[in-house]
Amino acid sequence: MSIPLLDLNRQYDTIKEEIRDVIDEVLESQYFIMGDNVEQFEGEAGTYCETKHAYGCASGSDALLLALMAMDINPGDYVITSPFTFFATAGAISRLNAIPVFLDIEKDSYNLDPKQVELFLKKEHPVYKKLDPDPERIKAVIPVHLYGQMADMDPIMEIANEHGLKVIEDAAQAIGATYKGQKAGSMGDFGCFSFFPSKNLGAYGDAGLITVKDPILAEKTDILRLHGAKPKYHHSIVGINSRLDSIQAAILSVKLRYLDEWSEKRKEIAHTYNELFRKAGIVGDLNQCKDGCSENCGLETNSIITPTETTGASDRSGRHIYHQYTIRTKKRDALARVLNAENIGHSVYYPVPLHEQECFSYLGYKASDCPNAHCASRQVISLPIYPELKEAEIQKVADTVISVHTS
Ligand SMILES: Cc1ncc(COP(=O)(O)O)c(C=O)c1O
């Protein structure tokens, strides 16, 4: 039995006819860029994400870039974000010659730690002393909702408001996730979504969406993706070419109707994994894992840590959409070897945190500046999770993980 990390064919098989019909309609119309299909999807996605303004664009990376451009991020400005994310989050900041400020994550949720942001903005964080920024030039914070779970948004919003910073939610992995009943992308000034094919809502190519709270910034975002033109061929600002294709929009409209069902199925699978691991007695206590741990991590060698769904403050509840099911273990290399031998897909998101990437070495970070991100990058491993995964496959994945942690 071979179990891929993700098998998009299985999903396609269930919606093939609907998808082919809408693609045919676009082909018959010969209208490929923007247009009615895009407007329709923007309306549906805006309603789904509980935001007033939603604009399709070419990718999640562009959504981040457009948000930063809309708020006039200039060379030399500082933007705070998580070091434990896909590169695009920080890449967008650097593309504008602004400076990413990496602050550590919470070790349970893997998301940006609001306490670190607060310390930084109060000028009490060691990273503040290292970067010595002009406080006037600290402009924004980008919390990332990693693996499908939202960051602790209330304190992040509160600190950002207090210091006059804009908040851009990197919701690329979290469409449909909630935090205290509020949808991802509806809380910050901007929300950035990716429809990369492997996402919970995946297009058949690159695609993205940006949600915007303020109507004036919304209008600016709308034209920034069209080279800043309004009306056509009249440019008051310089934008980029980042449009959504009609074919992708039509596909996304079909798939959006299934999204909640798919995400609930993912959650069921996550809970099944959790239960199988718990029954096998291999689930450890994250409190054993000391801040800053790595080789000296207190986590027992034969224990794993399963994903935490509601973390941090006790009143922090939300919906995890399980874009990834990620465990942590000190036996990651051994586990990967056995998973490979059993033909079970797996991946490490992410093996090198951004504060340790060569391209950011000019910032002068040490690994220990973000100890939780450093430690997570050495211990996390993601297992197959998709709605079509069969019971026997879930059991096989779990048995394999259990066997490595009981021998
Ligand atoms: C957290 C995060 N941010 C941004 C992106 C960029 O999205 P895209 O690949 O659509 O450009 C991704 C997608 O992989 C992501 O996971």
TrEMBL record:
CDD domains: AHBA_syn
Keyword Transferase included in the entry's annotation: yes
Keyword Transferase: yes
InterPro entries attached to this UniProt entry: DegT/StrS_aminotransferase, PyrdxlP-dep_Trfase, PyrdxlP-dep_Trfase_major, PyrdxlP-dep_Trfase_small
Domain of life per record: Bacteria
UniProtKB keywords: Aminotransferase, Pyridoxal phosphate, Transferase
One of the record's GO molecular function terms: transaminase activity
A Pfam family of this chain: DegT_DnrJ_EryC1
Family: Belongs to the DegT/DnrJ/EryC1 family.
Name of this protein: DegT/DnrJ/EryC1/StrS family aminotransferase
Organism: Gracilimonas halophila
